[in-house]
Write a structure and sequence with these properties.
- There is one protein chain.
- It is built from 14 helices and eleven strands.
- The protein is α+β, with helices and mostly antiparallel strands and about 450 residues long.
- Strands 1, 2, 3, 4, 7, 8, 9, 10 and 11 form a nine-stranded mixed beta sheet that branches.
- Helix 10 runs antiparallel to helix 11.
- The radius of gyration is 38 Å and the shape is elongated.
């Protein structure tokens, strides 16, 4: 007999197959439901134990003195410490400052300033005399060599300038400037203030070749140093580099065994190693061309100092670049204010202007957070204070030194340091805003701390 879909299984079993399937599914569901119930029970048990665990944790935290606030607060404090203290070294930590302040706070500031000046600032007279003699001898040798071959190039003898001649040397007189005065024909050249040109460069000027209708191009010995119609200081620097190499190679600078002539986009320098045995390790002579011409506002002295060098930080100024790179400011000449600056620092009234400048130079050099400031930055800060203050007697040195620190702090806070003569020139232009902010925060903290200024002199 034929069977339908509900036929029996072989072996005579009466239970249909679909009933067996339902039983299997029901069994699996029961097992799953049991597992779910067990998981819920375990979860409830953990919830009941959680308050007790939290209470124990809090008690443990209160008993342990090493327990701190959350990590986020710790991270914020770490960031603040990094902003205030630029260096993580122990030398500049707060605890180290506290130790130094406690030892310095009991002594008058004027006494610490005098001691600091004697120990870390004042240069021995014999060193100054010896280094001046070496620099002047090199200047004389260059003069003799140039006049022997190019009689019309120099307006006067090469002469020496620098802090040793201004009375503002700090510790070792190992840096001088050799100024090479070029002889330009008065009727062929005209000074153009770069502030009034598309370059917008206050404090700089262009030397323009003029009257070409009467004096044809090529009639001046300086026409080969033109870029366009302007005298180029970089090209003249290459000429002076060639002169300096020939002078040194022919033994004009004594019998120095170790010397280096270095030329970059910033300066041409001659470095002498151990120029006078036992006094200084090296002597650096920066060779700078200069020009004196009559301008619309009287006699103007120009120096071949590249644009931007005065506003650079000390680190950036030390870097060298390729002198042959093209620069839109390559024809600029700096309008020198050396004479004006020297007059402002005169202590004919028995004052302490130069001492304050020298001490501030040493402090900035010895404190890493302020070491990015160049000597010209520090000098400019002091010159601004010289304009404002008239009382500079020795008995006022402590007050004036505090004033000069506050003046520096104010310029850092403003993120702008105007040139003392060329007011539109910002000497902080080469610094990043964050770098100035760090220096300002560091200095503010020292000025606000009890005896914080004293600690700078220990």
């Amino acid at each position: 007999m034929a069977s339908g879909g509900g036929g029996r299984r072989p072996g005579g079993a009466d239970t249909p197959w679909w009933v067996t399937g339902i039983k299997v599914v029901a069994g699996i569901g029961a097992v799953a439901l049991g597992a779910y119930a067990a998981a819920r029970a375990a979860e409830e048990a953990l919830r009941e134990e959680e308050p007790m665990t939290s209470t124990q944790s809090a008690a443990s935290c209160s008993d342990d003195k090493a327990c701190k606030s959350d990590s986020s607060d710790s991270d914020n404090n770490a960031d603040d410490d990094q902003w205030v203290d630029i260096n993580d070294d122990d030398e500049y930590s707060d605890s180290s400052d506290d130790v130094r302040q406690s030892s310095a706070g009991e002594r008058p500031l004027v006494e610490l300033l005098e001691e600091y000046y004697q120990d870390k600032v004042q240069a021995p007279d014999e060193e100054i005399t010896a280094m001046k003699a070496v620099a002047e001898q090199v200047a004389q040798n260059i003069t003799e060599y140039v006049r022997g071959r190019h009689a019309n190039i120099l307006q006067r003898d090469v002469f020496v300038a620098g802090s040793a001649y201004d009375g503002t040397t700090v510790k070792h007189p190992n840096m001088f400037v050799l100024l090479v005065p070029l002889n330009l024909e008065a009727n062929m050249w005209k000074i153009v203030n770069a502030k009034d040109t598309v370059l917008k460069a206050p404090g700089y000027a262009l030397v323009h070749r003029a009257n070409t209708d009467f004096y044809r191009p090529g009639s001046s010995i300086w026409d080969r140093f033109l870029v366009g119609t302007y005298l180029n200081s970089d090209l003249i620097q290459r000429l002076l580099e060639d002169v300096l190499n020939k002078v040194t190679n022919r033994g004009f600078t004594f019998a120095y065994q170790d010397y280096y002539v270095t030329s970059s986009d910033k300066a041409l320098t001659l470095e002498l190693i151990h120029p006078v045995g036992g006094l200084v390790d090296h002597l650096t002579l920066q060779v700078v061309p200069c020009i004196t011409l009559e301008g619309s506002n009287g006699t103007v002295c120009l120096e071949g100092i590249p644009h931007g060098c005065l506003s650079e930080s000390a680190e950036r100024s030390a870097r060298k670049a390729d002198i042959y790179e093209r620069d839109p400011y390559e024809n600029l000449w700096y309008q020198s204010t050396r004479t004006k600056e020297a007059e402002m620092l005169q202590d004919e009234d028995g004052g302490c202007r130069k001492k304050c400048l020298q001490i501030l130079k040493a402090v900035c050099h010895n404190q890493p957070p302020l070491s990015s400031l160049s000597e010209f930055h520090v000098k400019t800060v002091c010159l601004h204070l010289c304009e404002e203050e008239s009382e500079w007697e020795d008995v006022m040195m402590a007050e004036r030194f505090l004033d000069v620190l506050k003046t520096l702090e104010q310029f850092l806070d403003d993120k702008k340091l105007p040139h003392v003569v060329h007011k539109e020139m910002d000497l902080f232009e080469g610094f990043a805003s964050r770098q100035l902010g760090k220096m300002n925060t560091w200095l503010q903290k020292r000025l606000k701390q009890p005896n914080g200024v004293h600690a700078l002199l220990i």
